[in-house]
Amino acid sequence: MFKLLDSYLKYDPAAKSILEVLLFYPGIKALLLHRIAHTLYQLGVPLLPRMLSEIGRFLTGIEIHPGAQIGQNVIIDHGMGIVIGETAVVGNSVILYQGVTLGGVSTKKEKRHPTLEDEVIVGAGAKVLGNIVIGKASRIGANSVVLKDVPPGSTVVGIPGKVESFRN
User: Cα–Cα distance between 9 and 17 in angstroms, integer?
Assistant: First the structure.
């Protein structure tokens, strides 16, 4: 928990103190509620995980399905409108900006949401859709729509999203 708070202080120049982040940053509240909901979801507890998810959405404007797997030190910055689907996997040290959707393109009961590997940054309004993998340390530009796998270290922009640069 303290490492997560420290991550906000490190990556958000507007964050002035741990107390400020804890009290006023909706991403922290959404992630804390998700951790509880996800644990209950894994235990097979009926209804309560979805109820906690709905409370989180009501309080923060951030919708995270209790089945989604969220790594450590994930930052949700200006989180209003973020949607993270049931089978999404979000790695460690990922940053998501407002309006990001990690959504599905299938109605089958299978893995249908994206996997974001560690250290990915997803810009405001981006839509990452389907059972795809966004490689480690990649960047997804604002308002991009990504429908295909992205190699590690890439920068993706546009509709549809295309790799514009690549870092080793």
Answer: 7
Q: What is the pLDDT of residues 150-163, one digit of tens each?
A: 999 999 999 998 99
* Alpha carbons 168 and 150: distance in angstroms, whole number: 13
Tell me the C-alpha distance between 113 and 18, whole Å: 32
Residue 79 in this model has a pLDDT that exceeds 90: no
Entry pTM: 0.93
CA–CA separation, 4 and 109 (whole Å)? 32
Question: What is the token pair recorded at 16?
Answer: 């002035």
- Burial letters 121-138, b for 16+ CB under 10 A, else e: bbbbbbbbbbbbbbbbbb
